[in-house]
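Quick one: Tripartite tricarboxylate transporter substrate binding protein from Pseudomonas urmiensis, structure tokens please.
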Amino acid sequence: MNLKKLILATLALSAATLAQADNWPSRPLTLIVPFPPGGAADTVGRYYAEQLSTSLGQPVVVDNKPGAGTAIAAEAVAKAKPDGYTLSLATAGQLAILPNLQAVRYDPIKDFTPVAVLASVPNVVAVGPQTKIDSLQALIDQAKAKPGALSYSSCGNGTLCHLSGELLKNLAGVDLLHVPYKGSAPAVTGLLGGEVDVAVDTLTVLAPQIQAGKLKGLVLTSAERSPLLPSVPSADEVGLPGFVASGWFGIVLPKGAEPALVERLNNAIEVIADKPETAERFGQQGISVERSSPAGFAQVIAADKARWGEVIRTAQVHIE
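--- reply ---
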């Protein structure tokens, strides 16, 4: 092929790509959510699916695909056509944590096209009344005085709740006994019943118990306080600026999605994020609305994968 034909072929391909993006979407879309109905991830996914249905002019149907720690959904998206009709709600656990814990049949960096971060929710470190601990420093002092005597619950082995507890141990130089539960509800029940001394879980889960005075919040794993718990200090305020650990939710497409299509979807998401009703609805659950470019989301995935990988290796975390 001579240079002229090559240029013409390239121009024709570019024109076809732009036409595809301009005509998208011409039929219903599917948003895969890697969790069963209910819960923060499903709430975020369904809200954005509803809003995108209106802005894109085509139904966005939520397809819940739980299982294998979110790997089943990720594998389904990785194998889908990159035509913009299969979207996925991606989470920190799915792309940044799980690949560090077990062999998965997808590459979190290479097999997806990041579109935008939608929302995030930090964790809270809380104690039950039986400990008489009233601050993070008091917790650290007691843990140093009696290494391994204090226990903390998480919503499961290898979860962000668990890794946040391990991060706290690393940053504060303390030894806490990890007690994994099968979900947030039994973990909180265990703390309320005195089975454990400390809980590390999401703001969404722990805020109602702290607001009711049943638990004492010691620190929020974010750089700023939350309006839901104005009396609970941030990580910066307690002198642990590295103790920032938020679970995020974002939208990804299969690898190979056209840049023009990705940009259009990102723009639609940004318009939704700017609506006052979005912040109001999520804020009631302690969820913060986020915004990012596709490149910015790619950086978040890579940075969190490296960061949590280091925590996992240092703490020698394993899942069965």
